[in-house]
Automatic annotation (TrEMBL):
SUPFAM superfamilies in the cross-refs: FAD/NAD(P)-binding domain (SSF51905), HI0933 insert domain-like (SSF160996)
Pfam families reported for this sequence: HI0933_like, HI0933_like_1st
NCBIfam families named among the record's database cross-references: aminoacetone oxidase family FAD-binding enzyme (TIGR00275)
Keyword terms, alphabetized: FAD, Flavoprotein
InterPro entries per the UniProt record, alphabetical: BaiN-like, BaiN-like_dom_sf, FAD/NAD-bd_sf, RsdA/BaiN/AoA(So)-like_dom, RsdA/BaiN/AoA(So)_Rossmann
Protein name: NAD(P)/FAD-dependent oxidoreductase
Residue ranges annotated for the RsdA/BaiN/AoA(So)-like Rossmann fold-like domain, each copy included: 5-391
Native source species: Rheinheimera aquimaris
Cofactor (UniProt): FAD
Ranges where the RsdA/BaiN/AoA(So)-like insert domain occurs: 188-338
Alphabetized PANTHER family for the sequence: OS12G0638800 PROTEIN (PTHR42887)
Amino acid sequence: MQQWDVIVVGAGAAGLMCAIEAGKRGRRVLVLDNGKRVGRKILMSGGGRCNFTNMYAGPENFLSQNKHFCKSALSRYTQWDFIALVQKHSIAYHEKSLGQLFCDDSAKDIVDMLLKEAKDANVQLALQQNITAVSFADGQYTVSTPELSQQCQSLVIASGGLSLPNLGATAFGFQLAEQFGLKVLPLRAALVPLTWQPADKAVFEEISGVSLPVTAEANGTVFPEDMLFTHRGLSGPAILQISSYWQPGEDVTVNMSPQTDITEFLAAQQQAHPEQELKTALAKLLPKRLVEKLIDIKAVNNQPLKTLHSKSMRQIADTLHSYVFKPNGTEGYRTAEVTIGGVDTDGLSSKTMEAKHQPGLYFIGEVVDVTGWLGGYNFQWAWASGWVAGQYC
Ligand code: FAD
Protein backbone atom coordinates (compact mmCIF):
# COMPACT_ATOMS: atom_id res chain seq x y z
CA MET A 1 0.00 0.00 0.00
CA GLN A 2 1.49 3.34 -1.08
CA GLN A 3 1.06 6.30 1.28
CA TRP A 4 0.39 9.92 0.18
CA ASP A 5 -0.58 13.13 1.91
CA VAL A 6 -2.98 14.03 -0.90
CA ILE A 7 -4.60 12.11 -3.74
CA VAL A 8 -6.34 14.23 -6.37
CA VAL A 9 -8.79 12.46 -8.69
CA GLY A 10 -8.86 14.24 -12.06
CA ALA A 11 -5.96 15.81 -13.96
CA GLY A 12 -8.03 18.63 -15.43
CA ALA A 13 -7.85 22.35 -14.72
CA ALA A 14 -9.02 22.20 -11.09
CA GLY A 15 -7.13 19.03 -10.12
CA LEU A 16 -3.80 20.19 -11.53
CA MET A 17 -4.07 23.62 -9.90
CA CYS A 18 -4.86 22.03 -6.53
CA ALA A 19 -2.03 19.48 -6.84
CA ILE A 20 0.48 22.25 -7.69
CA GLU A 21 -0.52 24.34 -4.67
CA ALA A 22 -0.50 21.38 -2.28
CA GLY A 23 2.85 20.24 -3.69
CA LYS A 24 4.30 23.72 -3.13
CA ARG A 25 3.37 23.35 0.54
CA GLY A 26 5.53 20.24 0.72
CA ARG A 27 2.64 17.76 0.60
CA ARG A 28 3.29 14.44 -1.17
CA VAL A 29 0.70 14.58 -3.93
CA LEU A 30 -0.53 11.96 -6.39
CA VAL A 31 -2.94 12.85 -9.21
CA LEU A 32 -4.97 9.98 -10.69
CA ASP A 33 -6.76 10.32 -14.02
CA ASN A 34 -8.63 7.84 -16.20
CA GLY A 35 -7.33 9.33 -19.47
CA LYS A 36 -4.16 8.91 -21.50
CA ARG A 37 -3.33 12.63 -21.28
CA VAL A 38 -3.79 15.37 -18.70
CA GLY A 39 -5.96 18.43 -19.33
CA ARG A 40 -7.89 17.02 -22.27
CA LYS A 41 -10.67 19.61 -21.99
CA ILE A 42 -8.12 22.40 -21.73
CA LEU A 43 -6.56 21.16 -24.98
CA MET A 44 -9.80 21.30 -26.91
CA SER A 45 -11.21 24.40 -25.24
CA GLY A 46 -11.69 27.72 -26.97
CA GLY A 47 -11.34 26.12 -30.40
CA GLY A 48 -7.85 24.85 -29.43
CA ARG A 49 -6.74 28.21 -28.03
CA CYS A 50 -8.25 27.91 -24.51
CA ASN A 51 -10.27 30.84 -23.26
CA PHE A 52 -8.42 30.49 -19.97
CA THR A 53 -10.07 33.28 -17.98
CA ASN A 54 -12.15 36.43 -18.23
CA MET A 55 -10.92 39.86 -17.19
CA TYR A 56 -14.34 40.74 -15.78
CA ALA A 57 -15.01 37.47 -13.91
CA GLY A 58 -17.07 37.95 -10.76
CA PRO A 59 -19.64 35.99 -8.74
CA GLU A 60 -22.47 37.39 -10.90
CA ASN A 61 -21.20 35.29 -13.84
CA PHE A 62 -21.95 31.98 -12.10
CA LEU A 63 -25.04 29.85 -11.51
CA SER A 64 -25.40 27.91 -8.28
CA GLN A 65 -28.16 27.11 -5.84
CA ASN A 66 -26.13 29.22 -3.38
CA LYS A 67 -24.91 32.18 -5.40
CA HIS A 68 -22.68 33.38 -2.54
CA PHE A 69 -20.63 30.17 -2.33
CA CYS A 70 -18.18 30.99 -5.15
CA LYS A 71 -17.35 34.47 -3.80
CA SER A 72 -14.62 33.46 -1.38
CA ALA A 73 -12.55 31.35 -3.82
CA LEU A 74 -13.00 33.81 -6.69
CA SER A 75 -11.77 36.68 -4.51
CA ARG A 76 -8.78 34.77 -3.12
CA TYR A 77 -7.50 33.53 -6.48
CA THR A 78 -8.58 36.01 -9.12
CA GLN A 79 -8.27 36.18 -12.90
CA TRP A 80 -5.30 38.51 -12.34
CA ASP A 81 -3.50 35.80 -10.36
CA PHE A 82 -3.95 33.37 -13.23
CA ILE A 83 -2.92 36.00 -15.79
CA ALA A 84 0.26 36.57 -13.73
CA LEU A 85 1.01 32.83 -13.91
CA VAL A 86 0.47 32.86 -17.69
CA GLN A 87 2.80 35.86 -17.97
CA LYS A 88 5.42 34.18 -15.77
CA HIS A 89 5.53 31.39 -18.36
CA SER A 90 5.76 33.92 -21.23
CA ILE A 91 2.60 32.57 -22.87
CA ALA A 92 1.33 35.01 -25.50
CA TYR A 93 -2.39 35.79 -25.19
CA HIS A 94 -5.00 38.26 -26.36
CA GLU A 95 -8.48 39.50 -25.51
CA LYS A 96 -10.93 38.26 -28.13
CA SER A 97 -13.98 40.19 -26.89
CA LEU A 98 -15.89 40.87 -23.68
CA GLY A 99 -12.79 40.29 -21.52
CA GLN A 100 -12.26 36.74 -22.86
CA LEU A 101 -8.54 35.87 -22.84
CA PHE A 102 -7.21 33.27 -25.30
CA CYS A 103 -3.72 31.89 -26.03
CA ASP A 104 -2.24 33.35 -29.20
CA ASP A 105 -0.81 29.96 -30.20
CA SER A 106 -2.31 26.91 -28.57
CA ALA A 107 -4.16 25.60 -25.52
CA LYS A 108 -1.22 23.23 -25.16
CA ASP A 109 0.74 26.19 -23.73
CA ILE A 110 -1.59 26.16 -20.70
CA VAL A 111 -1.26 22.38 -20.20
CA ASP A 112 2.54 22.59 -20.55
CA MET A 113 2.59 25.42 -18.00
CA LEU A 114 0.58 23.34 -15.51
CA LEU A 115 2.78 20.29 -16.08
CA LYS A 116 5.94 22.35 -15.51
CA GLU A 117 4.49 23.80 -12.29
CA ALA A 118 3.40 20.32 -11.18
CA LYS A 119 6.87 18.91 -11.83
CA ASP A 120 8.50 21.76 -9.88
CA ALA A 121 6.14 21.01 -6.98
CA ASN A 122 7.04 17.28 -7.07
CA VAL A 123 3.51 16.23 -7.98
CA GLN A 124 3.24 12.61 -9.18
CA LEU A 125 0.84 11.79 -12.02
CA ALA A 126 -0.70 8.39 -12.75
CA LEU A 127 -2.75 8.20 -15.95
CA GLN A 128 -5.20 5.56 -17.27
CA GLN A 129 -6.25 4.69 -13.75
CA ASN A 130 -9.55 2.96 -13.19
CA ILE A 131 -10.63 3.63 -9.60
CA THR A 132 -12.73 0.72 -8.39
CA ALA A 133 -13.33 1.68 -4.75
CA VAL A 134 -12.74 4.41 -2.16
CA SER A 135 -13.03 3.80 1.56
CA PHE A 136 -12.34 5.77 4.73
CA ALA A 137 -11.07 4.44 8.07
CA ASP A 138 -8.93 5.83 10.90
CA GLY A 139 -8.60 9.25 9.22
CA GLN A 140 -7.21 7.73 6.00
CA TYR A 141 -8.75 7.28 2.56
CA THR A 142 -7.93 4.13 0.59
CA VAL A 143 -8.24 4.52 -3.18
CA SER A 144 -8.17 1.21 -5.05
CA THR A 145 -7.46 0.43 -8.67
CA PRO A 146 -7.20 -3.13 -10.06
CA GLU A 147 -3.40 -2.95 -9.68
CA LEU A 148 -2.89 -1.12 -6.40
CA SER A 149 -4.38 0.42 -3.28
CA GLN A 150 -3.08 3.82 -2.18
CA GLN A 151 -3.72 5.69 1.04
CA CYS A 152 -3.96 9.42 1.76
CA GLN A 153 -5.02 11.88 4.44
CA SER A 154 -6.71 14.25 1.99
CA LEU A 155 -8.74 13.15 -1.00
CA VAL A 156 -9.58 15.84 -3.54
CA ILE A 157 -12.28 15.12 -6.12
CA ALA A 158 -11.74 17.08 -9.33
CA SER A 159 -13.33 14.65 -11.76
CA GLY A 160 -15.44 17.27 -13.57
CA GLY A 161 -18.95 17.02 -14.98
CA LEU A 162 -20.70 14.76 -17.48
CA SER A 163 -20.12 16.69 -20.69
CA LEU A 164 -18.17 14.99 -23.49
CA PRO A 165 -18.30 11.38 -22.23
CA ASN A 166 -15.98 10.35 -25.08
CA LEU A 167 -13.33 12.55 -23.46
CA GLY A 168 -13.37 10.63 -20.19
CA ALA A 169 -16.25 12.31 -18.33
CA THR A 170 -17.76 10.04 -15.66
CA ALA A 171 -20.22 10.34 -12.80
CA PHE A 172 -17.45 9.30 -10.37
CA GLY A 173 -17.42 12.55 -8.35
CA PHE A 174 -21.18 12.63 -7.91
CA GLN A 175 -21.31 8.98 -6.83
CA LEU A 176 -18.45 9.48 -4.39
CA ALA A 177 -20.20 12.53 -2.91
CA GLU A 178 -23.29 10.41 -2.28
CA GLN A 179 -21.18 7.59 -0.84
CA PHE A 180 -19.97 10.05 1.82
CA GLY A 181 -23.40 11.50 2.51
CA LEU A 182 -23.18 14.70 0.45
CA LYS A 183 -26.20 15.79 -1.55
CA VAL A 184 -25.93 16.03 -5.34
CA LEU A 185 -28.24 18.58 -6.97
CA PRO A 186 -29.96 17.60 -10.25
CA LEU A 187 -27.59 17.56 -13.22
CA ARG A 188 -28.24 18.88 -16.72
CA ALA A 189 -26.26 19.81 -19.80
CA ALA A 190 -25.53 23.54 -20.20
CA LEU A 191 -23.70 25.85 -22.60
CA VAL A 192 -25.26 23.60 -25.19
CA PRO A 193 -27.16 24.09 -28.48
CA LEU A 194 -30.97 23.89 -28.33
CA THR A 195 -32.82 21.53 -30.67
CA TRP A 196 -35.87 22.06 -32.89
CA GLN A 197 -39.35 20.73 -32.40
CA PRO A 198 -40.02 18.51 -35.48
CA ALA A 199 -42.29 21.18 -37.06
CA ASP A 200 -39.67 23.94 -36.60
CA LYS A 201 -36.95 21.68 -37.97
CA ALA A 202 -38.91 21.32 -41.21
CA VAL A 203 -39.18 25.12 -41.40
CA PHE A 204 -35.77 26.34 -40.27
CA GLU A 205 -33.23 23.70 -41.25
CA GLU A 206 -33.17 25.23 -44.74
CA ILE A 207 -31.52 28.34 -43.32
CA SER A 208 -28.86 26.53 -41.31
CA GLY A 209 -25.64 28.49 -41.36
CA VAL A 210 -27.43 31.86 -41.02
CA SER A 211 -26.15 33.85 -38.06
CA LEU A 212 -27.04 37.26 -36.67
CA PRO A 213 -26.51 39.39 -33.55
CA VAL A 214 -29.50 39.05 -31.22
CA THR A 215 -30.52 39.20 -27.63
CA ALA A 216 -31.86 35.87 -26.37
CA GLU A 217 -34.07 35.74 -23.29
CA ALA A 218 -35.22 32.84 -21.11
CA ASN A 219 -36.59 32.99 -17.58
CA GLY A 220 -35.93 36.73 -17.35
CA THR A 221 -32.22 36.44 -18.21
CA VAL A 222 -31.00 38.11 -21.41
CA PHE A 223 -27.75 37.62 -23.36
CA PRO A 224 -26.68 39.85 -26.25
CA GLU A 225 -24.49 37.90 -28.68
CA ASP A 226 -24.65 36.03 -31.99
CA MET A 227 -27.21 33.32 -32.73
CA LEU A 228 -26.70 30.59 -35.34
CA PHE A 229 -29.35 28.50 -37.13
CA THR A 230 -28.16 24.88 -37.48
CA HIS A 231 -29.65 21.68 -38.92
CA ARG A 232 -30.48 20.53 -35.42
CA GLY A 233 -31.67 23.80 -33.87
CA LEU A 234 -30.24 27.04 -32.52
CA SER A 235 -26.66 27.61 -31.47
CA GLY A 236 -24.10 30.43 -31.25
CA PRO A 237 -22.92 32.17 -28.09
CA ALA A 238 -26.27 33.83 -27.26
CA ILE A 239 -28.03 30.45 -27.32
CA LEU A 240 -25.26 28.59 -25.46
CA GLN A 241 -25.45 31.22 -22.72
CA ILE A 242 -29.24 31.12 -22.48
CA SER A 243 -29.26 27.29 -22.45
CA SER A 244 -27.98 27.48 -18.86
CA TYR A 245 -31.14 29.34 -17.83
CA TRP A 246 -33.66 27.60 -20.12
CA GLN A 247 -35.78 24.75 -18.74
CA PRO A 248 -37.53 22.09 -20.84
CA GLY A 249 -40.94 23.24 -22.04
CA GLU A 250 -40.08 26.93 -21.86
CA ASP A 251 -39.76 29.53 -24.63
CA VAL A 252 -36.67 31.39 -25.76
CA THR A 253 -37.53 34.90 -26.93
CA VAL A 254 -35.15 36.37 -29.49
CA ASN A 255 -34.80 40.03 -30.44
CA MET A 256 -33.54 39.80 -34.01
CA SER A 257 -32.70 43.48 -34.20
CA PRO A 258 -31.44 44.55 -30.79
CA GLN A 259 -29.64 47.65 -32.08
CA THR A 260 -32.27 49.12 -34.39
CA ASP A 261 -35.89 49.92 -33.60
CA ILE A 262 -37.75 48.27 -36.45
CA THR A 263 -40.80 50.58 -36.36
CA GLU A 264 -38.57 53.63 -36.73
CA PHE A 265 -36.45 51.89 -39.37
CA LEU A 266 -39.49 50.97 -41.48
CA ALA A 267 -41.00 54.45 -41.19
CA ALA A 268 -37.74 55.99 -42.41
CA GLN A 269 -37.46 53.46 -45.26
CA GLN A 270 -41.05 54.12 -46.28
CA GLN A 271 -40.37 57.84 -46.56
CA ALA A 272 -37.14 57.37 -48.50
CA HIS A 273 -38.21 54.45 -50.76
CA PRO A 274 -42.03 54.12 -50.84
CA GLU A 275 -41.98 51.72 -53.84
CA GLN A 276 -39.52 49.35 -52.17
CA GLU A 277 -40.70 45.90 -51.03
CA LEU A 278 -40.72 45.17 -47.31
CA LYS A 279 -38.37 42.20 -47.79
CA THR A 280 -35.78 44.41 -49.51
CA ALA A 281 -35.92 46.90 -46.65
CA LEU A 282 -35.66 44.21 -43.96
CA ALA A 283 -32.71 42.59 -45.74
CA LYS A 284 -30.75 45.78 -44.93
CA LEU A 285 -31.12 44.83 -41.25
CA LEU A 286 -31.28 41.04 -41.17
CA PRO A 287 -29.70 38.20 -43.20
CA LYS A 288 -31.55 37.89 -46.55
CA ARG A 289 -32.18 34.13 -46.15
CA LEU A 290 -33.80 34.74 -42.77
CA VAL A 291 -36.04 37.50 -44.17
CA GLU A 292 -37.13 35.25 -47.04
CA LYS A 293 -37.89 32.44 -44.60
CA LEU A 294 -39.94 34.73 -42.33
CA ILE A 295 -41.97 35.81 -45.36
CA ASP A 296 -42.27 32.21 -46.53
CA ILE A 297 -43.82 31.13 -43.22
CA LYS A 298 -45.96 34.28 -43.11
CA ALA A 299 -44.39 35.57 -39.92
CA VAL A 300 -44.38 38.85 -41.90
CA ASN A 301 -46.26 39.64 -45.13
CA ASN A 302 -44.29 41.08 -47.98
CA GLN A 303 -45.73 44.21 -49.62
CA PRO A 304 -44.58 47.56 -50.99
CA LEU A 305 -43.52 49.85 -48.14
CA LYS A 306 -46.02 52.54 -49.24
CA THR A 307 -48.93 50.20 -48.34
CA LEU A 308 -47.70 49.64 -44.77
CA HIS A 309 -49.79 51.31 -42.05
CA SER A 310 -48.17 52.28 -38.80
CA LYS A 311 -50.12 49.48 -37.04
CA SER A 312 -48.63 46.84 -39.36
CA MET A 313 -45.18 48.35 -38.88
CA ARG A 314 -45.60 47.92 -35.14
CA GLN A 315 -46.80 44.32 -35.63
CA ILE A 316 -43.77 43.49 -37.77
CA ALA A 317 -41.53 45.14 -35.19
CA ASP A 318 -43.17 43.20 -32.35
CA THR A 319 -42.66 39.93 -34.23
CA LEU A 320 -38.99 40.56 -34.97
CA HIS A 321 -38.09 42.16 -31.64
CA SER A 322 -39.58 39.25 -29.71
CA TYR A 323 -39.62 36.15 -31.86
CA VAL A 324 -40.59 33.14 -29.77
CA PHE A 325 -38.88 29.78 -30.27
CA LYS A 326 -40.02 26.71 -28.33
CA PRO A 327 -37.03 24.35 -28.31
CA ASN A 328 -37.57 20.62 -28.06
CA GLY A 329 -34.54 20.10 -25.83
CA THR A 330 -30.77 20.40 -25.93
CA GLU A 331 -28.06 18.46 -27.74
CA GLY A 332 -27.18 17.03 -24.30
CA TYR A 333 -23.83 16.05 -22.84
CA ARG A 334 -22.51 14.99 -26.26
CA THR A 335 -21.82 18.63 -27.15
CA ALA A 336 -22.42 20.54 -23.88
CA GLU A 337 -19.47 22.53 -22.53
CA VAL A 338 -20.53 22.10 -18.91
CA THR A 339 -22.82 20.35 -16.43
CA ILE A 340 -25.13 22.39 -14.26
CA GLY A 341 -25.83 21.15 -10.74
CA GLY A 342 -23.55 18.77 -8.88
CA VAL A 343 -22.23 18.50 -5.34
CA ASP A 344 -24.42 20.71 -3.17
CA THR A 345 -22.36 23.59 -1.81
CA ASP A 346 -24.32 23.38 1.47
CA GLY A 347 -22.14 20.42 2.37
CA LEU A 348 -18.84 22.19 1.59
CA SER A 349 -16.79 24.94 3.21
CA SER A 350 -16.50 27.88 0.79
CA LYS A 351 -13.17 28.77 2.43
CA THR A 352 -11.45 25.40 1.94
CA MET A 353 -13.74 23.34 -0.37
CA GLU A 354 -13.63 20.56 2.27
CA ALA A 355 -16.76 18.55 3.04
CA LYS A 356 -18.21 19.91 6.29
CA HIS A 357 -19.00 16.50 7.75
CA GLN A 358 -16.30 14.36 6.14
CA PRO A 359 -12.81 15.50 7.17
CA GLY A 360 -10.15 15.39 4.49
CA LEU A 361 -12.57 15.08 1.55
CA TYR A 362 -12.55 18.03 -0.90
CA PHE A 363 -14.56 18.81 -4.05
CA ILE A 364 -13.37 21.36 -6.64
CA GLY A 365 -14.10 22.52 -10.18
CA GLU A 366 -17.06 21.51 -12.26
CA VAL A 367 -18.14 18.61 -10.04
CA VAL A 368 -19.38 21.26 -7.58
CA ASP A 369 -22.71 23.05 -8.11
CA VAL A 370 -21.03 26.20 -9.50
CA THR A 371 -21.33 26.80 -13.25
CA GLY A 372 -19.94 29.75 -15.15
CA TRP A 373 -21.15 31.59 -18.22
CA LEU A 374 -19.48 31.05 -21.57
CA GLY A 375 -16.31 33.13 -21.84
CA GLY A 376 -13.51 31.79 -19.63
CA TYR A 377 -15.52 31.77 -16.40
CA ASN A 378 -15.56 27.99 -15.98
CA PHE A 379 -11.79 27.77 -16.07
CA GLN A 380 -11.55 30.66 -13.61
CA TRP A 381 -13.76 28.67 -11.21
CA ALA A 382 -11.57 25.59 -11.74
CA TRP A 383 -8.36 27.58 -11.04
CA ALA A 384 -9.84 29.40 -8.03
CA SER A 385 -11.49 26.42 -6.33
CA GLY A 386 -8.40 24.28 -7.04
CA TRP A 387 -6.07 26.92 -5.63
CA VAL A 388 -8.14 27.30 -2.47
CA ALA A 389 -8.29 23.57 -1.77
CA GLY A 390 -4.55 23.36 -2.46
CA GLN A 391 -3.89 25.64 0.52
CA TYR A 392 -5.60 23.27 2.97
CA CYS A 393 -5.63 19.69 1.69
P1 FAD B 1 -12.25 18.50 -16.17
O1 FAD B 1 -11.42 19.47 -16.93
O2 FAD B 1 -13.40 17.88 -16.87
O3 FAD B 1 -11.26 17.38 -15.63
C1 FAD B 1 -11.75 16.25 -14.99
C2 FAD B 1 -10.74 15.14 -15.17
O4 FAD B 1 -11.15 14.02 -14.38
C3 FAD B 1 -10.66 14.64 -16.60
O5 FAD B 1 -9.31 14.54 -16.99
C4 FAD B 1 -11.35 13.28 -16.55
O6 FAD B 1 -10.82 12.41 -17.53
C5 FAD B 1 -11.02 12.85 -15.15
N1 FAD B 1 -11.95 11.84 -14.63
C6 FAD B 1 -13.29 11.79 -14.76
N2 FAD B 1 -13.76 10.69 -14.16
C7 FAD B 1 -12.70 10.03 -13.64
C8 FAD B 1 -12.55 8.82 -12.92
N3 FAD B 1 -13.61 8.05 -12.61
N4 FAD B 1 -11.31 8.43 -12.55
C9 FAD B 1 -10.22 9.18 -12.86
N5 FAD B 1 -10.31 10.34 -13.54
C10 FAD B 1 -11.54 10.76 -13.92
N6 FAD B 1 -14.32 26.73 -20.09
C11 FAD B 1 -13.72 27.93 -20.18
O7 FAD B 1 -13.63 28.62 -19.18
N7 FAD B 1 -13.17 28.37 -21.36
C12 FAD B 1 -13.24 27.65 -22.52
O8 FAD B 1 -12.67 28.04 -23.55
C13 FAD B 1 -13.92 26.40 -22.47
N8 FAD B 1 -14.06 25.67 -23.59
C14 FAD B 1 -14.64 24.44 -23.51
C15 FAD B 1 -14.77 23.68 -24.68
C16 FAD B 1 -15.35 22.42 -24.61
C17 FAD B 1 -15.52 21.63 -25.88
C18 FAD B 1 -15.79 21.90 -23.37
C19 FAD B 1 -16.41 20.54 -23.28
C20 FAD B 1 -15.69 22.67 -22.22
C21 FAD B 1 -15.13 23.94 -22.27
N9 FAD B 1 -15.02 24.73 -21.13
C22 FAD B 1 -14.42 25.96 -21.22
C23 FAD B 1 -15.45 24.24 -19.80
C24 FAD B 1 -14.21 23.75 -19.04
O9 FAD B 1 -13.46 22.89 -19.89
C25 FAD B 1 -14.59 22.98 -17.78
O10 FAD B 1 -15.49 23.72 -17.01
C26 FAD B 1 -13.34 22.68 -16.96
O11 FAD B 1 -12.47 21.88 -17.73
C27 FAD B 1 -13.68 21.98 -15.65
O12 FAD B 1 -12.46 21.64 -15.04
P2 FAD B 1 -12.40 20.43 -14.01
O13 FAD B 1 -10.95 20.30 -13.67
O14 FAD B 1 -13.38 20.59 -12.94
O15 FAD B 1 -12.86 19.16 -14.86
